[in-house]
Amino acid sequence: MPQHITVLNYDPEWPLKYMRERNRIFEILGDNCLSVYHIGSTSVPGLAAKPVIDIMAVVRSLEQADSDAGKFSAAGYEYLGEFGMAGRRYLRKGGDERTHQIHIFQVDDWHNIERHLAFRDYLRTHEKERNEYAKIKKNLAQKFPRDIDGYCIGKENFVREVEERAVSQYDGTWDKLYLAARKAQYRRNISPLIEAGAVSAAILSARGNIYTGVCIDTACSLGMCAERNAISTMITNGESKIVKIAAVMPDGKAGMPCGACREFMMQLEKAAGEIEILCDCETKRTVKLKTLIPDWWK
After folding, report:
1. SS3 of 91, please?
2. At residue 216, does pLDDT exceed 70?
3. Rounded CA gap, 19 and 99, in Å?
4. What ranges make up the beta strands (E) of the chain?
5. Are 112 and 179 in contact (CB under 8 A)?
6. Of 123, 155, 117, nearest in space to 37 by CA
7. What are phi and psi of 127, to 5 degrees?
8. Greatest CA separation found in the chain?
9. C-alpha 8: how far from its chain's center?
10. Which residue has the higher pLDDT, 97 or 10?
11. Mean pLDDT of 139-147
12. Distance CA 23, CA 219 (A)
């Protein structure tokens, strides 16, 4: 039987359902999984939607994700490959009464990652378009209760127009920095005395370039923090001005630079206190360097 299409008013349980599934996805994909996002209509507070939790997972390797198809199947998902979109892996769960959909993209596919995040964030902040979209979906659900193609075609023009507008306005810098840091973050056992990669960092330079680095931990005091490693790479490439920096801890959450890294950054240039530091990956909360090192000695 074709998928049953129903559109409901926003349910505050949807984010909770996403979080439960998010944890399961991380378990299945393991170290290949760099980030997981709640996307689609159920991720927009106040928006009526089909009660289907749309999830986007960003991975190092799609081929490695393919090897986990059996684990997803055991979790109740159909693993359908690209399913009409090159560079994607599409999974669904729930049969005719769909409950979850997963869209997996490789980390370097910024085009697809960005458009999903931009569309979501635009609807979160634009009430007029949000209400218009809800009205369109409710009407289409009544008209096509068992015709998913008719339902999707009916909202296609609206989605395309809003997506183009959203992408043109979207600043995905923090997402780019976070994913760049996560891509560099994996453990390397260099020798019995040195390991690296548990913590990573990405910086945006004044010229718009992104540089990454990982921590290097040694048996004595010769190691290096991820932030200073990234800054060293930037300096090696002829730059010295930082605009933004994101450090990622072993648990995937943003972390604050240590005291030595704060001092190092402050000495880079006169305006270094204005460097933005990522505090929280989900909310994009930031802090300026000067607030972390008040009454600086110089």
Report:
1. strand
2. yes
3. 14
4. 33-39, 53-59, 78-79, 88-93, 100-106, 188-191, 194-205, 210-218, 242-248, 254-255, 276-278, 286-288
5. no
6. 117
7. -65, -40
8. 72
9. 27
10. 10
11. 91
12. 34
For residue range 31-40, list pLDDT tens digits in order: 999 999 999 9
278: DSSP letter: E
Element (H, E) at 264: helix 259-266
Cα–Cα dist 217/199, whole Å: 10
Q: What are phi and psi of 38, to 5 degrees?
A: -85, 120
Quote the pLDDT of residue 1: 55
Task: Please name the residues in contact with 294: beta carbons below 8 A apart, sequence gap of 6 or more.
Answer: none
| Number of CB atoms found within 10 A of residue 247's CB | 27
CB 87 within 8 A of CB 112: yes
Asked if residue 138 has pLDDT above 60, the reply is yes
How many CB atoms neighbour CB 238 within 10 A?
A: 9
**Start-end of H helices in 43-100:** 62-66, 69-74
Q: What is the DSSP secondary-structure string of 171-239?
A: --HHHHHHHHHHHH---EEEETTEEEEEEEEEEEETTS-EEEEEEEEESSS--B-HHHHHHHHHHHTT-
Specify the amino acid at residue 158.
F
| 179 phi, psi to nearest 5 deg | -70, -35
Q: Which residue has the tokens 């369109």?
A: 136
**Counting every residue, how long is the chain?**
298
Section 254-272 average pLDDT: 96
Q: Which residues contact 147 (CB under 8 A, 6 or more apart)?
A: 2, 5
Q: How far is CA 264 from CA 97, 216, 257, in A?
A: 56, 17, 10
Q: Beta 242-248 vs 276-278: how paired, if at all?
A: parallel
